[in-house]
Structure formats: C-alpha cells, structure tokens
Amino acid sequence: MKRVLGAIRKAVEEYNLIEEGDRVAVGVSGGKDSMILLHALKLFQRFSPVKYDLEAITVSLGFKDFDLNPIKEFCKTIDVPYTIEETQIAEIIFDIRKEKNPCSLCAKMRRGVLHNSMKKRGLNVLALGHHSDDAIETLFISMFYSGRLATFSPKTYLSRKDIYAIRPMIYVTEAQIIGAMRKHNIPIVESPCPMDKNTKREEVKQLMKKIYKDIPDARDRIITSIKNKDQLNLWF
Question: How far, in Å, CA of 128 to CA of 126, rounded?
Fold first, then answer.
C-alpha cells in the first residue's frame, strides 16, 4: 500500500487533484480499483497537506443477487459515509432497449445518477479508480477504434454540474492494486454484468500484456509519452 499511497501523493501534488476543504466522493463499483482507491484516500487523509472530507457512493444497476453488504461493512470499518443509489439501468439497457453495445449508454446513465447524488450531498469532487494501465488502454482504444490520440485527463471540470472528476491512481499499476488488495484483504464484489470481461477494453488489455512481456519498459515509456506534449510530432 505504500507504493499506492506514494503514487497517489505524486498525482495529487502534480495535478492539484484535491484542494483544501474539498468534499470528495469515491464512485465505488465494488471492484478492486474503486475499493483500493477508497481505502487509499482514507489513509491519505492522515498525512495529506490539505484537508478534505470523504464519502463513498455506489450506483446499483438493478441486477439481482448483487450483494453490497461487503462494501457497507468495509465503509463502516474505515469510518466512511456510504450511499447506495438504486436504479433500473440494467433493465432499461438489456431488457427494454436491448442494446448490442451497452457500455457507453450504461456509463452515461451511471454518471448522471452519481453526479446528482453528489449534488444532493454537497460533494464537489468525484474520485474515479482509473489507473495507469487504464490510461494506456484508453489511448490504444482511441487509436484503434476512433482514429484519435486521446486518453482521459487526471483532472476534469464538469461545468454542467460544477464538479471536478479526478483520477488519483494514474501513476498506480494494476499489478500494484492487486498486490495491495491481497495484502490488506480488501473485499470486492464481483460484477454481475454480462458484458464484464467481454469488451474491446479487455481485448486491448490482453494485447498490452503481450507487449509488456516483450518490452518490459513499455508501460513507463508510454506514460512518459502521454505526458510529453512538448515533443508531439504528428502530421498536421
């Protein structure tokens, strides 16, 4: 967890992710990324140079047998207020609309519910569990499927809701998250979504694993490339 916290501190300081008095919500899906982020931000409160409040919010999509009790108990253990927003997003997407590519619409609907929940609770910063491997995969997905060089930003201002979305784990690898989860026995709740592990992102993830096997330093060099805007040499 020390490496995770060190990487989070670097990101927070480098991109000014959290400011004095911020009221931060962690969007908790129950997966390893969001659970580790929640735990890490709670620990980070102890030595953060700026003071902030922390809460957790889960948007339940309405799947049956989606047991959120492990998250409830974990939030009690670490003393973090926890809100569950119940929805019927799964029914709308899979049963009513019968979406063939549901992920984009689902994400948009979840964000809407999450943002509204934050506004009701007076929370102004949304912390998301995206890590460095997610940033790289997003870059390649954008190139392969959209013909663009783009990935998500460490900090984004959402003007319509007056909310900042931050990604404190941009310097954390997925391997570090898995290691911290196992070492500290962080509970996770498996996603019941039928699209889980059946997406373009999963295909790119497997491709990147092959690249890292052949080129061990590739991950760090790609992250450096993403940050290196002053040496961007493309056709214009």
Answer: 6
